[in-house]
């Protein structure tokens, strides 16, 4: 039996991860402030633009950055679901379980809202697509999403812990079948069935 294993990158307390954590807070705070806020939004926009100017001045060329992103341990640091370097990632941490499944718990806030007080369906789709991909990686045979079928059973709440699961259910030649779910308080909110095809695009170099 395989011991449980962290499959996503551990966020660092310093460096770019700390700045990304601050950026996530800015996104959330802007949405919370809204158009009725008494904060000086013109000045805030100038400050944020000067932060971005500073980052751009010190960034490598885009093609070099693409190479670096896909090198070594970097592969799970930048994706839009689990990446500690990606400010649009919630971020979700996934643990590979001894039974072959993967599991993670996260709470989503205002930036991910769809219906009032609930998670946008496309966000659930993004999270499940990625989780199924990681489940395939954990199972040892992975590929690209060819089909993703979602069933939205009940609205998925914001501000409450959500359990995200994925498990590979079968491999037939290049076809990989994987399923998963988002649950809240023990109830399934969204379930997913995916068909993945064993194929990998070349990494930039
Ligand atoms: C992303 C990888 C990261 C790797 C990092 C490494 C380590 C990090 C560790 C953990 C992280 C791991 C994973 C992260 C997870 C990421 C999840 C994100 C996944 C994605 O976000 S990924 C982007 C969205 N995805 C696409 O962008 C695909 C676009 N698409 C294509 O690239 C082609 O379309 C392809 C490749 C799908 C197939 O093309 P192909 O030429 O290779 O194969 P072909 O067409 O011959 O099909 C062979 C057999 O599959 C059947 N088949 C094909 N497609 C079907 C369909 N849609 N429905 C039903 N059956 C289908 C055929 O009917 C035939 O069946 P048969 O053999 O029986 O005739």
Automatic annotation (TrEMBL):
<dbReference type="InterPro" id="IPR048654">
    <property type="entry name" value="RHA1_ro05818_N"/>
</dbReference>
<keyword id="KW-0963">Cytoplasm</keyword>
<keyword id="KW-0966">Cell projection</keyword>
<dbReference type="GO" id="GO:0006631">
    <property type="term" value="P:fatty acid metabolic process"/>
</dbReference>
<dbReference type="Pfam" id="PF03061">
    <property type="entry name" value="4HBT"/>
</dbReference>
<keyword id="KW-0443">Lipid metabolism</keyword>
<feature type="domain" description="RHA1-ro05818 N-terminal helical">
    <location>
        <begin position="7"/>
        <end position="63"/>
    </location>
</feature>
<comment type="similarity">
    <text>Belongs to the THEM4/THEM5 thioesterase family.</text>
</comment>
<dbReference type="InterPro" id="IPR029069">
    <property type="entry name" value="HotDog_dom_sf"/>
</dbReference>
<dbReference type="GO" id="GO:0016787">
    <property type="term" value="F:hydrolase activity"/>
</dbReference>
<keyword id="KW-0378">Hydrolase</keyword>
<dbReference type="InterPro" id="IPR006683">
    <property type="entry name" value="Thioestr_dom"/>
</dbReference>
<keyword id="KW-0276">Fatty acid metabolism</keyword>
<keyword id="KW-1003">Cell membrane</keyword>
<protein>
    <recommendedName>
        <fullName>Acyl-coenzyme A thioesterase THEM4</fullName>
        <ecNumber>3.1.2.2</ecNumber>
    </recommendedName>
</protein>
<keyword id="KW-0809">Transit peptide</keyword>
<dbReference type="GO" id="GO:0005737">
    <property type="term" value="C:cytoplasm"/>
</dbReference>
<keyword id="KW-0472">Membrane</keyword>
<feature type="domain" description="Thioesterase">
    <location>
        <begin position="117"/>
        <end position="178"/>
    </location>
</feature>
<dbReference type="InterPro" id="IPR052365">
    <property type="entry name" value="THEM4/THEM5_acyl-CoA_thioest"/>
</dbReference>
<keyword id="KW-0053">Apoptosis</keyword>
<dbReference type="GO" id="GO:0016020">
    <property type="term" value="C:membrane"/>
</dbReference>
<dbReference type="Pfam" id="PF20859">
    <property type="entry name" value="RHA1_ro05818_N"/>
</dbReference>
């Amino acid at each position: 039996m395989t011991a449980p294993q962290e499959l996503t990158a551990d966020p660092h307390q310093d460096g770019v991860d700390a700045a990304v954590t601050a950026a996530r807070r800015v996104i959330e705070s802007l949405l919370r402030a809204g158009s009725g806020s008494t904060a000086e939004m013109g000045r805030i926009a100038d400050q944020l633009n000067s932060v971005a100017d500073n980052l751009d001045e010190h960034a490598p060329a885009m093609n070099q950055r693409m190479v670096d992103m896909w090198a070594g341990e970097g592969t799970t640091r930048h994706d839009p679901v689990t990446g500690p370097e990606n400010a649009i990632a919630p971020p979700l941490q996934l643990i590979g379980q001894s039974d072959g499944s993967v599991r993670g718990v996260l709470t989503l806030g205002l930036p991910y809202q769809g219906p009032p007080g609930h998670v946008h369906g496309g966000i659930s789709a993004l999270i499940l697509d990625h989780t199924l991909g990681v489940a395939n990686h954990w199972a040892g045979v992975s590929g690209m999403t060819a089909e993703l079928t979602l069933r939205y059973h009940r609205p998925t709440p914001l501000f409450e812990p959500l359990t995200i699961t994925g498990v590979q259910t079968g491999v037939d030649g290049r076809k990989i079948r994987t399923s998963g779910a988002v649950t809240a308080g023990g109830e399934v909110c969204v379930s997913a069935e995916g068909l993945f095809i064993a194929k990998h695009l070349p990494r930039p170099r």
